[in-house]
Amino acid sequence: MMLEINTVKELREAIGPEKAKGKKIGFVPTMGYFHEGHLALMREAKNRAGIVVVSIFVNPTQFGPNEDLDKYPRDLERDRGLAEGAGVDILFVPSAAEMYPDGYATYVEVAGDIADVLCGRSRPGHFRGVATIVAKLLNIVMPDAAFFGEKDWQQLVVIKRMVHDINMDVEIVGIPTVREADGLAMSSRNAYLNPKEREAALILSRALRLAHDIVKGGERDAARLSKALQGYIRAEKHVELEYLEVCDPESLAPVDKIAADTLVAVAAKIGKARLIDNTIIHVGGS
């Protein structure tokens, strides 16, 4: 039976004896409103660890002043059932006051270009909030491995850098993006889309598939690829393109030529939803 815990003290008391027995701890940090992408992370954690801990915390420090903190979708009762069905052992659901008590003054920031480009350009402070809450959660849970979706590629890169730089003893595992049957990347924010907007949102995954086709056709110039994909997306009137960039998947630096593995990342506003997606192009493959 899954155990639900709301405080750091109780969580540590629950995990401690399991670690003492030599059990591996797998951890999946989330903001809740689960979909199949979250469940894929939980199932992979279950495959690799003896105890699976999942957190649900809508982290206020990663939302900007005009973003959707208050409106972010929440359904704890539904999430409980899905987590238990996925084999989760402990569901950690702290309050904001538990994670950021009065007088809280410590933050973690990954400096340099990987946090300032792509989503970081339009969301100043976002990755500072992400790094802070993930560092706190990893310190609380002390897992052997933590699991993150590759849809949030920049977040994954930032977290790996943080873990490396401050010598955290945890494996960060990226899990491939889970998509709807029509290609739309699963996201809690898809709940914001009306039927017309959801249909328009498919332009993002279609553009990423088009990127593979263009490269298979012999294109190696990153600027020409980017221009073609931007034009393709902007032809969809319900989509406001924020960025489409062709870059190195580890440094996130823009590239001139497509060689080896190349990241194509996109973000767009569709109705009330801001959606992101990406793909890795393997030259000579698919």
Write the layout of secondary structure elements.
Elements: E1 3-5, H1 8-20, E2 25-30, H2 36-48, E3 51-56, H3 76-85, E4 90-92, H4 96-99, H5 113-116, H6 119-122, H7 126-141, E5 145-149, H8 153-165, E6 171-175, H9 195-216, H10 222-234, E7 240-247, E8 261-270, E9 273-282
Helix pairs in contact: 7-8, 9-10
CATH class category name of the largest domain: Alpha Beta
Q: Which H/E pattern describes the elements?
A: EHEHEHEHHHHEHEHHEEE
Q: Give the overall silhouette.
A: globular
Give the CATH topology of the largest domain: Rossmann fold
CATH homologous group name of the largest domain: HUPs
What is the number of beta strands? 9
User: Class by helix and strand content?
Assistant: alpha/beta
Describe this structure in words.
This protein is α/β, with parallel strands linked by helices. The protein folds into two domains: 3-175, Rossmann fold (3-Layer(aba) Sandwich), CATH 3.40.50; 188-280, Pantoate--beta-alanine Ligase, Chain: A,domain 2 (2-Layer Sandwich). It is built from ten helices and nine strands. The protein has helices at residues 8-20, 36-48, 76-85, 96-99, 113-116, 119-122, 126-141, 153-165, 195-216, 222-234; strands spanning 3-5, 25-30, 51-56, 90-92, 145-149, 171-175, 240-247, 261-270, 273-282. A six-stranded parallel beta sheet has the order 1-4-3-2-5-6, with helices on both faces. Strands 7-8-9 form a three-stranded antiparallel beta sheet, covered by helices on one side. Strand 2 (25-30), helix 2 (36-48) and strand 3 form a beta-alpha-beta unit. Helix 7 (126-141) packs across helix 8 (153-165) and helix 9 packs antiparallel against helix 10 (222-234). The radius of gyration is 19 Å and the shape is globular. The model has no long low-confidence stretch (mean pLDDT 97).
